[in-house]
Amino acid sequence: MMPLEQTSKNGRVHGKVALVTGGAKGIGAASARLLAAEGAQVLISDLDVEAGQALAAEIGPTAAFIRHDVSNEDQWRQVIEHVRKRYGRLDILVNNAGILIAGSIEETSLADWHKVMRVNADSVFLGCREGIALMKDSGGSIINLSSIAALAGRDDYLAYSASKGAVAALSRSVAVMCRRRKYRIRCNTLHPDGVLTDMTRGGFPEGIDPNRLTIDSDPMNRMCRPEDVAASVLFLASDEARAINGVELRVDSGQMVMSI
Q1: What residues does the Ketoreductase domain cover (predicted)?
Q2: Looking at residue 18, which CATH number applies to its domain?
Q3: Helices (DSSP H) in 136-197: which residue ranges?
Q4: Does some domain include residue 259?
Q5: pLDDT above 90 covers what percent of the chain?
Q6: Residue 246 domain flag
Q7: What is the dihedral of CA 16, 22, 27, 31, to 10 degrees?
Q8: Most exposed: 127, 163, 229, 246, by fewest CB within 10 Å?
């Protein structure tokens, strides 16, 4: 079992154990860095072994990496057992892993639909189910990454939107169950929009510099950075959010409330 004394004693999640799926890049990597900086022991899980190991090495002794296919039920059991043996408990579960496949209802194949659902929705179901089994005796925080696409219509990303809608509905059910059963586990969803990551960069037309569309260049722009979402992950993971459960928190620079 990893001694927790190695973590920062002044951090907002000091002494907590966190598992971040899809943690090698993007929002997951930013969340892993911030949680570790704020005192947590962080286990990064991802299929990208090279990037995941490099990130764990960058963070230092408070981070570790494990290869993990989040759509695989057996691997979820193995990862949670690894957490139990190494750390003794799980306080923070960030279900972040996801993929993006473009296509409207007319263009999306059944194979693509199933692939997106397996990675984006099945993984959250499995993560919550297996994570709760370890968390329910001591309590904790589950943070599931959904999307503004779960709340507003996107004709060009049908399967992605549907998968993120499933994440939001599942999370509400988990929040209610944990409260009724007095597990002291909170479950909330984050709904980002326009986050500049490696995954989203590929969707920009040639010749368009997405950096010019971020809130770095203009605070009224739509796009934000992974670190902006990670800040909300940290808040929901911390005891500061102890009264927040079943919430759908938008991190979208006001995009959802725009009427035109």
Answers
A1: 16-199
A2: 3.40.50.720
A3: 158-180
A4: no
A5: 78
A6: yes
A7: 10
A8: 246
- Which of 251, 252, 237, 235 minimizes the C-alpha distance to 94? 237
Cβ atoms of 24 and 53 within 8 Å: the answer is no
Q: Where are the alpha helices (DSSP H) in the chain?
A: 26-37, 49-59, 73-87, 110-117, 123-135, 158-180, 198-201, 226-237
> Judging by beta carbons within 10 Å of its beta carbon (0-12, 13-18, 19+), is residue 247 exposed, middle or buried?
middle
Is 258 domain-assigned? no
Rounded-to-integer distance, Cα 144 and Cα 196, Å = 19
Is 87 annotated in the active site? Answer: no
Predicted local confidence at residue 258, as pLDDT? 76
Residue 256 lies in a domain: no
Read off the pLDDT band of 159 (50, 70, 90). Answer: very high
Residue 186 CA to residue 167 CA, distance in Å, equals 15
**Residue 206 has what pLDDT?**
72
Identify the domain containing residue 244 by its residue range.
4-250
Query: Are 47 and 69 a contacting pair, CB within 8 Å?
Result: yes
Q: Which of 87, 157, 160, 183 is catalytic?
A: 160
pLDDT (tens digit per residue) in 34-49: 999 999 999 999 999 9
* pTM of the complete model beyond 0.85: yes
Tokens 């279900």 identify what position? Answer: 95
